[in-house]
UniProtKB/TrEMBL annotation, chain A:
GO terms for cellular component: cytoplasm; nucleus; plasma membrane. It comes from the Eukaryota. GO terms for biological process: protein transport. One of its GO terms (molecular function) is calcium ion binding. Keywords: Calcium, Cell membrane, Cytoplasm, Lipoprotein, Membrane, Metal-binding, Myristate, Nucleus, Phosphoprotein, Protein transport, Repeat, Transport. This is EF-hand domain-containing protein. It is found in: Cell membrane; Cytoplasm; Nucleus. It comes from Oncorhynchus tshawytscha (Chinook salmon). The gene is CHP1.
From TrEMBL, chain B:
Belongs to the TMC family. It comes from Oncorhynchus tshawytscha. The chain crosses the membrane at residues 325-350, 371-391, 406-424, 498-519, 574-594, 717-737, 766-787, 823-847. This is Transmembrane channel-like protein. GO terms for cellular component: plasma membrane. Residues 1-15, 25-35, 160-192 have a biased composition (Basic and acidic residues). GO terms for biological process: detection of mechanical stimulus involved in sensory perception of sound; vestibular reflex. It is a multi-pass membrane protein. The lineage of its organism: Eukaryota, Metazoa, Chordata, Craniata, Vertebrata. InterPro entries: TMC, TMC_dom. Residues 199-208 have a biased composition (Low complexity). Residues 899-910, 954-971 have a biased composition (Pro residues). Keywords: Membrane, Transmembrane, Transmembrane helix. Residues 1-218, 894-984 are annotated as: Disordered.
Amino acid sequence: NGSKSVVRTLRPEAFKSMIPTIPVTNMVCFFAVSHSQITRLYSRFTSLDKGENGTLSREDFQRIPELAINPLGDRIINAFFPEGEDQVNFRGFMRTLAHFRPIEDNEKNKDPTASEPLNSRTNKLLFAFQLYDLDRDDKISRDELLQVLRMMVGVNISDEQLGSIADRTIQEADQNGDNSISFNEFIKVGNLQHINVWAGDHYLILSYILLSVLQD
Amino acid sequence: MPPRKKTDIAIKMEEVGMDIDGELDSGHEDEVRWRDRNRKVKLSPRAGGRNGKQATSEEEEEEEDEAQSKRAHKKKAKVQDSEEEDEEEEDEAQRKRAYKKKAKVQDSEEEDEEEEKSVKRKGPKAAGRNKKAVKQVSEEESEEEERGKKRKGRKSTIKNQKEGQNKEKKSDAKGKSDAKGKGVKDKGNEKDKKKKNAKYSSSSSSGESGDEDSLSEGEIAAQKEEVEEKKKLIATLRNKPWRMKRRLKLLKECQAFVEKFEGALGKGKGRKLYAYKVIIAKKMIKFNRDFDNFKTACIPWERKIKEVESHFGSSVASYFIFLRWMYGLNLVLFGFMFGLVVLPEVMMGLPYGSIPRKTVPRAQQAKAMDYSVLLDFGGYCKYSVLFYGYYNDERTIGLLQFRLPLSYLLVGVGIFGYSLMVVIRTMARNSDEGGDGGDDGQFTFTFKMFTSWDYLIGNPETADNKYASITTSFKESIVDEQENQKDENIHLRRFLRVLANLFILCSLGGSGFLIYFVVKRSQDFAKLDQNTLSWYEKNEVEVVMSLLGLVCPPLFETIAELEEYHPRIALKWQLGRIFALFLGNLYTFLFALFDDVNEKLEQEKYIKNATIWGLKEYYANYSTFHNTTDIPPPEIPPADVIRGPCWETDVGIEFVKLTVSDIQVTYLTILIGDFVRAVIVRFLNYCWCWDLEAGFPSYGEFDISGNVLGLIFNQGMIWMGAFYAPGLVGLNVLRLLSSMYYQCWAVMSCNVPHERVFKASKSNNFYMGLLLLVLFLSLLPVVYTIMTLPPSSDCGPFSGRAQMYDVVMETIEKDLPAFIGNIFTYATNPGLIIPAVLLMVLAIYYLNATSKNYQNANLELKRKMQMARDEEKNRRNNKESTNQVMHDLVGLLPNRSLIPPPAEEAPPPDNMSEKGSKFPKVAKRPGAVKVKGVNLQKDVSLAAPNSREAVTRPPGPRGPPGNARGPPPGPGRGRGRGAPPPRC
């Protein structure tokens, strides 16, 4: 694990010593989580960290059953990792998790001047969107949908049926006729009243699993 | 170090963050207008495209010119030495006040404001530029970013600070000089500073000593604002399109300023207050959080239900939630019953054995304590507070003058009132929350695609089932679609459906008759000597009813297969039929019971007459024998008094027995049908010829519909029986309580998750509707008996009155002032009641009509939305083509003045195109594609191995891994392959 240089400007050992002191304070502010949550998360982090080198690998994440089972689990796990990295340190871990923190009532109208927090609705949706947008072209194409479908329904449905499902999906959500779902369209779908449940609860659930499962 | 260290995800996050930064920079109220505009810009793809395209330098130049011209007439003397300087100026405009430029220092306040305005106007564009900034991410970026984020975070902690309106020049200047001084420090120092800053954030009230003690409130406010701005700048600095050197310098200065003044914010008077505020705010947040946790922890069985939910999905959990709801309801009912009827009677009423109705008759006393008798609720059980007959008819009891009979009647009726209210309220809330849960058709597949996975599932078995259920749901949707088109062999299907309904009607009628027959027979048995009867003969009714409940539902299910309904509809039919069965059984049972009651009434009349006659004889004899008119009542021990059958108690006993047998059957079914079966399947599987687990017996599934219906009917029994057996509610509370634990255990240990999980929210209101129906139906017999049947003359709180509701009349007459009685008389006048009923009917009609109108309006709106959507689609498609041309033209413009220096040139186009691609038109711009193709492909190939790396374990249901994971890298994918032909 010696080849990565980016995040490793902070060595694991340094990290461990830093955790109780300054970064926690920073993270408290940045992620708007409480000290106790951070300490809990940190203990969870260390318990996940089987290699005990202050970073998590993909294998570490896959030990979480909820993630291992999830058809999109790998993609969620990938979201934790900076590109080209095999390790994620506590800070990166926290940063990704911060997306999932539920929006609390008292935050909604707290301070209009503050920049949008990571856990805002848009950012949550964006996170979700990127789970589907594999090639990162800001569009969910038919092929990407097909991949997700294959993951979700396995081989129980014939290919042409899958294709028709994907077509129908795009047909429903697509607004500008480019045969793919852009983030704006994705948000629009998410803005429908029905799916409020989704963007709210569904990804709250995701946050729930990640925060609770990871915190355990 | 590679130039791009973050995943694309991270970068995109930042991009969005930047949008938002740009947007929120303008937090002040007067900038709302600007924000709106920005939003508009963000939302509409066209503008967005521009936004994304912003990266081209032309626009920036424009802005700059603008800003400069604004400034021009203010600052004549200002020298614009270099391009860099220009840039700086623009920066200044962007973040309202920068302290960098010493040369142009100390413009007037108006000018600052002017600048601010220009910033506002430029806001949206600035956002676009921010996006561009991402491109320029270079080596320091990640560090920068982290710092920035930290600062942002810190900012968020001090959000509470009030922002002042004015800017304080003095501090300003001071800050500048200060910043200047510190600006020389190197990077290492800066890091230290960062830490210091962090400390500040945690103890931001620990003011720094300074010379601003004389500052006024307004000045402090201004200073606060100043600091806020600084912090904002720090937070957004990394997005600014400047060279790294400059950014670092600026950063240092800002940091120094913030460090210097943040602590001083609360100088003097305000400091303590501010400190308190901060502390209190923190404590409040913590307290709220803890309180929320506490509240969650206080919800009974929340953990248990969540556990079940995670294993069995929300539909099974919905049953337990329903059970919990039921438990709550019954607890309240129990509170009423116990607090207002049972407890007063026990505390203040006459003790056991004092009067005949509270004493076991002599004939039964020998066996009154026998286990078998007690199990049948005879003996001491029958003559206890559990049943109607025990209550005395004294108008008031005890020191408190508690009007027990009145209370009894009111509680009996009030239970219905309360239940009705609660059920309807819950239904209304449910329908408000979940709607009907049906598919709107607009986004069916989209929702399924994006939302079907339950992220809480952590159990492989459940996951498999979830895969299956997703598959099924997709299949269902396909089937739905197909079914809409085909209608083959409709006659055969109709015939089959009629046939099936015929069968079911037959079996329903048969079961009804069977129950009627059995009840009749049990009445005959009751006349015989109890000792000669076998256990079966004594409990025939219960046994038969339970058997019917066991046999009929599967039978219906089998018959229903003839119908070939859509499974969803089939489920409702099934529920309705089982409901009808239960209902039929219940009502047959009730009618039989009424026969019984009538018989008992006759019997009672006879006994009453006999008693009166006997008394008369006694008085006659006594007066002739003792020759006195002062006759003491006959001294018969209470156990020996001849008494009537007391039909109310008998009815109560019937209900209690029914409830108890229901409990027994339910629990035994679970024990045998689930537990024993699971044990057998599990352990015999080792030595069996076929696979028991996968094959025939398998493990049981949790029967949601049956359980919920059972619960509902049980509740019906409670409602009906509670009037005659006040103890029934308590029994039910115990039952629900034990049932919660027992069923939770059973479901977790012996059941397997469903293969098809039907939507919980939908069925929940369906169940509520059934519950409401049952409530109404059980209301009828109770009200009927209260209003028409004469109460027994020698037992119960209403004995000696012609009707039960006479208690109310009595109270009105005797205890309330006369005019209230008058009012009541008028109110009960048919002349008043009929109009009232009429009015209510009219109101219902009106409300119904209104709701229909609303429904229509809703439909209309939906249609309009659909139309608008289509229209938008069309319009966009049209626009796209024109846009295309525009973009081509724009691309041709020679505009390279703002292109970043070569060192930073490599990343930008890549990122920019990514940015732009958020908005399809830009992505399709042919001009752009040519240049960016290479980078894009790199992009794709970067993404692909990445996602592939994650695959370490081939999961079963996910299908071919090669297909499932990661896009196949190569030129064929993504935008890189070139622009798809524009539409229209």
